[in-house]
Each structure stands twice: as structure tokens, then as C-alpha cells.
Design goal:
Elements lengths: L1 E2 H12 L6 H8 L3 H17 L3 E5 L3 E5 L2 H9 L1 H8 E2 L2 H13 L7 H8 L3 H15 L5 E5 L3 E5 L2 H14 L3 H11 L16 H17 L7 H19 L18 H13 L5 H8 L11 H16 L7 H14 L14 H7 L1 H14 L9 H19 L5 E6 L4 H14 L3 E7 L4 H8 L3 E4 L9 E3 L6 H21 L16 H22 L9 H16 L17 H13 L6 H8 L4
Parallel strand pairs: 1-4, 7-8, 7-9, 9-10
Antiparallel strand pairs: 2-3, 5-6
Helix pairs in contact: 1-3, 2-3, 6-8, 6-9, 7-8, 9-12, 11-12, 11-13, 12-14, 15-16, 15-18, 16-19, 17-18, 18-19, 23-24, 23-25
Length: about 600
């Protein structure tokens, strides 16, 4: 069986006309290349059973080779493959459990979950604990009755928003494209959406009617987010009505007042399902707020969210006027015409929750405090868009280039202070001396410039970290400052949960020349040692080529562009001792390259 990720890799290979590269897959699925290789092995095994072979080459990537008709047939059967040949991880099982409860009226037992998901009863009971955790932010409770089962209890809007969130969570860009193609009649209905099996037939009814409307009125122009919202919300509406749940009241919609594409679609779908068209269902599908609610004071809410996050994070976000203006504009647009209760597709949501969990949690709590009491939903997709505003603010105003803001306190003139500033900043990249001043101005400037560190020729009593140096900083002083800067950077990165840290090494423009020299020197030294160690194994005609290859290898290492391991065969005639010797030489020069790079070097040997 395939894992969830393996199934998505299979889908990727089937839907890609050309080839894909291991590194690109690693970045897309946010896992190591090693994990991708394991999943690809499973995919190769599964495709082999279907009589399809997977090919790979270092310079061409990975691709499958089969007849187009066969490939399309497998793509059309993906929903069946997902049900029968995919092993669900806990996250996927929890989502299926919630979906199962959302489409049913009665309580559901742990045994029913086990049978439905093809897992043991103990596994289902463990998964149910995770269901509880997932429901908390939505204000929904899991009702548990002994020997009866489990049921979701909460406001109907909250239940539907969770339903919508679960659909969006697994929606890929490829599926969005296929939906839009089918709706606008640019593609057939052959390839269905990978939805929960109980929901899929209802969704197909909605999509079919929408495509017919677009065909009949080709001038209709809707943004893809509006199309998806209408499709999914209308599907959820009839699914919940099937389970005998509706929105607040049963007032029939006045068709004269609401003559538009959405009403026409709802009329067709509800007529197909033999349901009346309620006004509250129409409001839900459009995302309209209750007109009786008090108007939101967006100015106040914007300030409250920023102030709360500032206090929790310990960052002066409230002092950034651009953050206020951008967030105010974002919320104003979001609440325009009262459209407040819907979830949107945000491809960054999962990444932001994982990489900036502390900031995400702070903003989530702020939204729950200041927006939820006004009956405004705050799904993860909504919160993640606000997180992006805070990250931009942090990057541009509070953590420019990740440097430590430093005050230099001395008794010398500006010329000498500037000379010292240039020397310190040249030798310590992560420091930014924002000001120099006399001992009398320290307290005022520390507050005004939001200083992280003080370098002073005088002993000063302060709560801010301080390094005492000679009037002309010595090498020892520079080393002390450097260590203090590293310590402060580690603290900042921990405090803000690596808010803006990249996994790749940052190389400044000032260091470019040094790095270039380092690459050339290391390449030369490694080449010399390898050619000496294997003098009898390298032909004279290949020595120059090997030297060039090793120089390029060092360059690839520095810029994280090493050869692709997946497409390199390890069945080489050279012994393990030769490989071990090459690794020892590279280790001396602090180069940890992968197996593909080692085997590439061995190609130059006899």
C-alpha cells in the first residue's frame, strides 16, 4: 500500500507530462530527499504491478513511460485507488472521522470508525483523542455517550466552516486547475475531485450544474476563489440538509431580490435535490454576515490584535505604522460587504503553522479574543494571512538582515567613532551599530533606537547586555563582541521561533569575494590530495578534467546544489577502502558530500 505522501507522488508523476526532479519533489512536499526516495520506491513498486515502469537519470529527472490512454485511465481511477491502496496516517484518519460525523445524523461508535477506516479499535480510540484537539479552535465539542458513540456538537456555522476547512486542507493546485477547467467547459468530467466518498456524488451534481450555467452564460466572470467557495459551500449545504441540519430559519428566499448566478445555481441544485431554497442557506453560500449584528470597529480591532501580539511576542509591532495600515486595509477588504464567514485557500497555511508556530498561536489567540465574540470565524487560512503581515513587519523594521542593533558609547569624536563602527561591522557581519553617543545620552537613545547591545569604553549599569572595550577595540575585544552577538542571535531566534531564519546559509555581498577564494582554495587542495592518494589510478589525460570536476563539486556544496542521489547507482567496481579514503580527505576539509558526488569522482579512476 501507498502512504498519503506516496499517493500524492503517484498523482504528481501521472499528471506531469515531462519529468520531475528529486530536489523539486523534496521542496514541494517539505521533506528530505531521503524520505522522497523511500516513497518513490513504493510508487515504483505499485506502478510495476500495473505494468508501468519508472525511469530516472541524473540530468533528466524522474518520469514514467506508458501509453497516454493507460495514464489517463489511472488518473480517472485515483479516487478508487485512494480508498483501496492508500494507508492513511493519523492526520488523514482524524479528518475522515470528522467528515464521517458531519455527514451523519446519529452517534457513531469506535467500531464503526474502525470498520470504515480499516484499522483496529484501539487505533480508532487513539485517533478520537486527536479529534478532540482539532475541534477546540472551532468551538465544537465531541459528545461521547457510553455504548452509543460519538457526535459533533456546536453551532451549525462552525460545523460547516470546519467542513470547508477539511476540504481545502487536501486541495492541490492541480485539482483547482481541473475544477476550473471543468466548470468553464474546457475539460471533460472524466477526472473527479478526491473528496470524501459520501460527499463526492453531491459535489458532482453541483459542479455539473455550474458548468451548464457557465456554458449558457459565457460572459459570466468569477474569480476562482468565488467559484470554489460557491461549489464547496453549496455541496456542504445540501450534505448537511441531507443529514437534517439547516441554518437558522426556514424563510424562503425572495428570488426577485436576489437574481444572480449564485441564485440560479442554487435553484437548479435544490430543485435537483427536491429541497426548498432558504434565505439563510443563500446567505451562508455567499458568506454574508447577519445584518442585525453591530458593525465591526475595524480600527479598534486592528489596534487590539497588534497590541496583543506585541506583548506576547515581546516585539514592538505597535510602533510600526506600516503594519497597522496594511493590516487595517486587509481586514477592511475582508469584511467588505459583510463577507466574513468563509475559509479561503491559502497555500502557505501549513508551512506558516509549522515554521512560525509561536507567532501563529499568538495571532490565533488575539483573533479569538477580539473577533470570535463578534461571531466572526477565524480559520487557519484567515490567520495565516495576518501572520504574513507580521512577518513582513518583523523583517523590514525589527530584524533587518537578522542583525543585532548596537549602541557604541565613547568619549571620542564622530570621525573616530565612525572608524570604529566600520571596523566592527566589517569583522562582525551580524552587528549593526545604529548610533554612537556619550555616557549622558545612553538611556534616552536605548529606548529610542530599541538597542539590543551596548559596546562601551565605560562601565555602565544597565539591563541591556553590554561589552566593555578599549578606546580602540583590540582583537580580543572584537572576539568578545562576536561571542556576545552570537549569544543574542541564538536568544532572538529561540524567542521568535526562527521567524525569519532560512535553512540555507546567508552570504552577504561583503563576503562574496572571501567565499570565492575559499571555494578555489579548497578545490585545489582536495584535488591535490586525491591525485596524490590515487596517483596510480588516474590517467594523465583525465587529471585536468578531475581538477575541474572537484572545483565544481566544492562550488555545488557551498550553494547546496549537490548531485541527485536517487538516480545514481551504487554498484561501482571500486572497493569500500577507496570510497573511505576519499571521504577522509573531504572530512579534513569539512565537506560532507552525498554518495552521488563520491561515485562521480570514481568515474575518473581506471
Amino acid at each position: 500500500m501507498l502512504t498519503i505522501r506516496g499517493f500524492r507522488l503517484l498523482t504528481k508523476l501521472l499528471e506531469t507530462n515531462g519529468s520531475v526532479y528529486l530536489k523539486d519533489l523534496s521542496e514541494e512536499f517539505d521533506v528530505s530527499t531521503r524520505m522522497i526516495k523511500y516513497d518513490l520506491d513504493d510508487v515504483k513498486g505499485w506502478l510495476s504491478e500495473q505494468g508501468i515502469e519508472v525511469f530516472s537519470k541524473s540530468n533528466k529527472g524522474i518520469w514514467i513511460d506508458c501509453e497516454e490512454e493507460r495514464r489517463l485511465a489511472i488518473i480517472r481511477s485515483l479516487s478508487e485507488i485512494e480508498r483501496n491502496d492508500v494507508y492513511l496516517n493519523q492526520e488523514a484518519r482524524v479528518g475522515k472521522m470528522i467528515m464521517y460525523m458531519l455527514v451523519n445524523t446519529e452517534h457513531i461508535t469506535a467500531s464503526s470508525f474502525s470498520e470504515r477506516l480499516d484499522v483496529s479499535r484501539n487505533t480508532s480510540l487513539n485517533d478520537i483523542k486527536q479529534v478532540d484537539e482539532l475541534l477546540k479552535p472551532w468551538g465544537i465539542e465531541l459528545e461521547k455517550k457510553h455504548r452509543v458513540g460519538y457526535k459533533l456538537v456546536g453551532e451549525e456555522l462552525s460545523l460547516r466552516l470546519l467542513f470547508e476547512h477539511l476540504i481545502h486542507a487536501d486541495l492541490t493546485n492541480s485539482e483547482v486547475y481541473k475544477i476550473m477547467s471543468r466548470v468553464t467547459c474546457r475539460d471533460s468530467f472524466g477526472e473527479g475531485l478526491l473528496l470524501f466518498s459520501d460527499v463526492l456524488p453531491l459535489y458532482e451534481v453541483v459542479e455539473k450544474h455550474m458548468a451548464e450555467l457557465f456554458f449558457a452564460t459565457p460572459k459570466q466572470v468569477l474569480h476562482e476563489s468565488d467559484v470554489l467557495r460557491i461549489l464547496f459551500r453549496l455541496t456542504i449545504s445540501i450534505t448537511r440538509m441531507n443529514a437534517r441540519f439547516t441554518m437558522n430559519n426556514y424563510r424562503i428566499l425572495n428570488e426577485v431580490e436576489h437574481s444572480n448566478l449564485t441564485v440560479q445555481l442554487m435553484e437548479k441544485v435544490y430543485q435537483h435535490m427536491q429541497y426548498p431554497l432558504f434565505e439563510e442557506e443563500y446567505r451562508y453560500v455567499l458568506g454574508e454576515r447577519d445584518s442585525n449584528l453591530n458593525q465591526i470597529d475595524i480600527v479598534k480591532v486592528t489596534k487590539e490584535i497588534i497590541q496583543y501580539v506585541s506583548e506576547i511576542q515581546g516585539v514592538h509591532f505597535h510602533k510600526d505604522p506600516k503594519l497597522y495600515n496594511n493590516l487595517f486595509a486587509h481586514l477592511s477588504l475582508r469584511f467588505h460587504k459583510g463577507e466574513i464567514n468563509f475559509t479561503e485557500i491559502n497555500p502557505f497555511t501549513k508551512e506558516l503553522k509549522r515554521e512560525h508556530s509561536i507567532l501563529f498561536s499568538s495571532i490565533q489567540k488575539a483573533c479569538q479574543m477580539y473577533l470570535v465574540p463578534q461571531k466572526i470565524s477565524v480559520p487557519d487560512s484567515f490567520i495565516s494571512l495576518i501572520v504574513l503581515h507580521f512577518i513582513v513587519s518583523f523583517e523590514k523594521r525589527f530584524n533587518q538582515k537578522g542583525k543585532i542593533r548596537t549602541l557604541y558609547v565613547c568619549s571620542t569624536g564622530r570621525g573616530v567613532a565612525r572608524l570604529i563602527k566600520n571596523r566592527v561591522e566589517r569583522e562582525i557581519y551580524d552587528i549593526d551599530i545604529v548610533k554612537n553617543c556619550s555616557i549622558m545620552e545612553v538611556d534616552e537613545i536605548c529606548v529610542k533606537e530599541e538597542v539590543d547591545l551596548i559596546i562601551s569604553v565605560f562601565p555602565i549599569e544597565t539591563d541591556i547586555p553590554i561589552v566593555i572595550v578599549d578606546p580602540l577595540p583590540s582583537k580580543r575585544d572584537i572576539e568578545t563582541i562576536k561571542n556576545k552577538v552570537k549569544e543574542l542571535l541564538r536568544y532572538k531566534n529561540f524567542q521568535f521561533n526562527n521567524l525569519l531564519e532560512s535553512t540555507e546559509e546567508k552570504i552577504s555581498n561583503q563576503d562574496t569575494e572571501f567565499v570565492s577564494q575559499e571555494i578555489i582554495l579548497k578545490g585545489f587542495e582536495i584535488n591535490q590530495e586525491i591525485q596524490i592518494a590515487f596517483a596510480d589510478e588516474i590517467e594523465g589525460s583525465k587529471k585536468q578534467a578531475l581538477m575541474l570536476h572537484i572545483s565544481l563539486m566544492v562550488h555545488r556544496y557551498y550553494f547546496d546544489k549537490q548531485y541527485d542521489n536517487y538516480s545514481i547507482s551504487s554498484n561501482h567496481s571500486r572497493g569500500k577502502e577507496d570510497i573511505k579514503r576519499i571521504l577522509e580527505i573531504l572530512d579534513v576539509h569539512e565537506l560532507q558530500v552525498n554518495e552521488a558526488e563520491i561515485f562521480a569522482i570514481l568515474q575518473y579512476f581506471k
